[in-house]
Amino acid sequence: MNAQETAKEILNKLSPEARILAKRVLELEREYLHVKTPTLLTNKIIEAAKEHAK
User: How far apart are CA 6 and CA 11, in angstroms?
Assistant: First the structure.
């Protein structure tokens, strides 16, 4: 990875499983963007990672 790579280029290099997880993390971040307790987001991301690790 270098400073000139775009996010899309980096995502395209990921494995299909990693791409699914990255997509889910982005969805969770959008969903919890205005949540007053941001620690919920961390737990949701951990749950998503565990689902994809099965």
Answer: 9
Asked, for residue 35, whether it belongs to a domain, the answer is yes
Q: Is the pTM of this model over 0.90?
A: no
| Domain containing residue 40 | 15-53
Give the pLDDT confidence of 20-29 residue by residue, as tens digits.
888 888 888 8
What length is written for the chain? 54
C-alpha distances in angstroms, 46 versus 2, 9, 13, 23, 51?
27, 25, 22, 14, 9
